[in-house]
TrEMBL record:
CDD domains: CC3_like_SDR_a
Protein name listed in UniProt: Protein HTATIP2
MF GO annotations: catalytic activity
InterPro entries reported for this sequence: NAD(P)-bd_dom, NAD(P)-bd_dom_sf
Domain of life of the source: Eukaryota
Assembly and interaction partners: Monomer. Forms homodimers during oxidative stress. Interacts (via N-terminus) with elongation factor EEF1A1 (via middle-region); the interaction is direct and competes with EEF1A1 binding to guanyl-nucleotide exchange factor EEF1B2, thereby inhibiting GDP for GTP exchange and reactivation of EEF1A1. Interacts with nuclear transport receptors XPO4, IPO5/RANBP5, IPO7, IPO9 and KPNB1 as well as GCN1L1/GCN1 and LRPPRC probably through their HEAT repeats. Binds NCOA5/CIA.
Lineage start: Eukaryota, Metazoa, Chordata, Craniata, Vertebrata
Originating gene: Htatip2
Single GO cellular component term: cytoplasm
One example of a Gene Ontology biological process annotation: import into nucleus
Residues in NAD(P)-binding domain copies: 4-151
Transmembrane intervals: none
Length: 170
C-alpha cells in the first residue's frame, strides 16, 4: 500500500507503475469538501490517477462512478461523474469498466443523519426490489473484482446497478 498526497500526485508516479489493473473508488461529498473540492477530488484527482496508471502500464481501469452520471447534467454531482467517465475513457486503456451503482449501502464512521435515514429506508426497499435503488458496497467490490478477472469484450463497458448486483452475486 502506498500513501500518496493527491495535491502532489505527479510526485508519486512510481506508485502507479507495474500494475495491470487499476481500481478507483475515490470520492468525497460537496458537503464535506465544498463544490470546488468535490470537483477536484471526484474529477481531477481521478483523471490524474488514471493518466498515471496508464503511463505506468495499466491496461484495465475500473472506475466506480454513479447512477445517472451525465456530463451534460445540470446537477453538479452527476455532471462531474459524467465528466470523469469521459476523461478516464479518453486516457486510452485497453479496457475501461465503469460501474454506476445506485445508493451505496454501507456503514460510515462520520455522522450523516439524512443519509442514515435514507439508507434505512432503501435497505427495507431492497428486500422487495433488490436492484432498484441501492447496492451494498461489498457487492460493488465483488463486481469490480469479477470485472478484473474477466474484462470481457470491447474497450469500454458500463455496468448499471442491476448488472453490478448480478456480478456481485457470482
Amino acid at each position: 500500500q502506498a500513501v500518496v498526497d493527491f495535491e502532489r500526485l505527479g510526485e508519486h508516479a512510481a506508485a502507479f507503475q507495474g500494475h495491470d489493473v487499476g481500481f478507483c473508488c475515490l470520492g468525497t461529498t460537496r458537503a464535506r469538501a465544498g463544490a470546488d473540492g468535490f470537483v477536484r477530488v471526484d474529477r481531477d484527482y481521478v483523471a490524474q490517477a488514471a493518466e498515471l496508471a496508464r503511463a505506468g502500464g495499466c491496461k484495465h481501469f475500473i472506475l466506480q462512478s454513479s447512477r445517472g452520471a451525465n456530463a451534460q447534467s445540470c446537477f453538479l454531482y452527476l455532471r462531474v461523474k459524467g465528466e470523469v467517465e469521459n476523461l478516464v475513457q479518453a486516457v486510452g486503456f485497453d479496457h475501461c469498466t465503469i460501474l454506476r451503482p445506485a445508493v451505496l449501502l454501507c456503514r460510515r464512521q462520520e455522522s450523516r443523519p439524512i443519509e442514515w435515514i435514507a439508507q434505512q429506508f432503501l435497505g427495507a426497499v431492497a428486500r422487495l426490489f433488490p436492484t432498484a435503488y441501492s447496492v451494498p458496497v461489498e457487492m460493488v467490490a465483488r463486481a469490480m473484482v469479477a470485472c478484473a478477472l474477466q474484462p470481457g469484450e470491447g474497450k469500454v463497458k458500463v455496468l448499471e446497478n442491476g448488472a453490478i448486483h448480478e456480478l456481485g452475486k457470482a
